[in-house]
Amino acid sequence: MAIKLKTLCAGVMGAVLLGSMAAQAAEVEVLHYWTSGGEAKAAAELKKIVEAKGNTWKDFAVAGGAGENAMTVLKARVVSGNPPTAAQIKGPTIQEWGAEGSLGNLDAVAKANNWDGLLPTVVANVMKYQGHYVAVPVNVHRVNWMWANPEVFKKAGATVPKTWDEFVVAADKIQKAGFIPVAHGGQPWQDFTVFESVVLGVGGHAFYKKALVDLDPASLNSPTMVKSFEMLRTVHKYIDKDSANRDWNLATAMVINGKAAMQFMGDWAKGEFTVAGKKPGKDYICAPAPGTADAFTFNIDSLAVFEPKSADAKKGQDDLAAAVMGVPFQEVFNLNKGSIPARQGMDLSKFDDCAKESAKDFSATAKTGGLVPSIAHGMAVPGATAGAMQDVVTQFFNGNSLTPKQAAEKLAAAAKVK
Ligand code: GAL
Question: Is residue 42 domain-resident?
């Protein structure tokens, strides 16, 4: 009730303010966590489009992969009554902020620019709270990728694996040849990212959906989940002993530099290869994670707007949202970020083969049921539930305190956390 009352007052005051003031150039403050080499180049494009409309860019970057640190800082800012203009908030978390009454409204700019016609329904739905646009998508990332160094594979006499069983054969050869088979970092979200690709490959997309999206208890605590945990333990055998606390982009660098053979990571990793001047198909290989060629775990980055405090602020939000959905931004941002445009019908001729495969698979899997939300990247279930499940996966992955069977049982229990 308290929240609703606050929202109502703010809404009325906002309307009075907005009606009585002529909009001027605005300061646009955007919270994000795009700080790696490729990400920073993409974020710089965001700054450019803000400034192109005569507004001022205020960078609010909070380092930390997958945005855990950023979300903590954001909560503190909103609670203190000082939200930024917009923030990189994704998936069901947008609904949580909507329910708090904190978000602004982008319906007018969405209508004027035909967002309903330009966005796939699966994307548009995530951007709306109670039927109103509150966020604008910048991209579509695919999470179930494997990034491989072909030289390392060649030197080890190994073949890029298409199944998890083939992965074991290849990883053994690579290890024997003196390379690190799997480049991995040391944060729980990275463990969770590998886990979801293993579940997808071992169980298939229908199982993934039942277990990790619908949270069906019988699927979570099932022989297939036990098998997935067994494979996850096997993957752990192939990472190096220095992975603790390593950032994801440093793990990508190990594949780029030929220290390691492969990394299981979403296509923001491609941004690192691009920044290093590497070409797909030649210097590196992008392939679906083993056993997941018929599936696509999606992760849509988006900027949600907070309730504006003035007509200037509202103008800044609308300018930002309109430009983000524009063709030039969707192209240049995604060329740098490694993702594909969220906007449909774009000319992809400047994009590389990995992006083209991603776009093709995004459309194809939407028809077969293989298009599923990434749980590790906040697209599938509420934040508290994902967090509890991630804790189980990380505990399992980084020690021997749980057997695969116990981990499956614990995962099913964690899925009840709301
Ligand atoms: C993802 C996010 C990407 C990228 C990555 C690493 O969750 O969607 O944009 O930033 O984390 O931080």
Answer: yes
35 belongs to a structural domain: yes
Distance CA 278, CA 174 (A): 22
Q: Which domain holds residue 31?
A: 26-139+299-354
Q: What predicted TM-score, i.e. pTM, was given to this entire model?
A: 0.94
Kindly give the pairing relationship between strand 260-264 and strand 180-182: parallel
Are 261 and 384 in a shared domain?
yes
User: Mutation test of ligand 1: which of 30, 33, 126, 272 has the most ligand atoms closer than 8 Å to its C-beta?
Assistant: 33
Asked whether the beta carbons of 87 and 32 are under 8 A apart, the reply is yes
250 and 193 in a common domain: yes
CATH of the domain at 128: 3.40.190.10
Contact between residue 303 and residue 70 where contact means Cβ atoms under 8 Å apart: no
Report the number of distinct structural domains present in the chain: 2
Q: Whose CA is nearest to atom 7 of ligand 1?
A: 66
pLDDT tens profile 33-86: 999 999 999 999 999 999 999 999 999 999 999 999 999 999 999 999 999 999
- Cα of 7 vs centre of ligand 1, distance in Å, is 31
Question: What is the edge-to-edge ordering of all strands in the sheet holding 180-182?
Answer: 180-182, 260-264, 145-148, 285-288
Q: Which of 66, 68, 72, 30 is nearest to 47 (CA)?
A: 30
> pLDDT tens digits for 280-326?
999 999 999 999 999 999 999 999 999 999 999 999 999 999 999 99
Write down the number of H helices and E strands in the chain: 20, 14
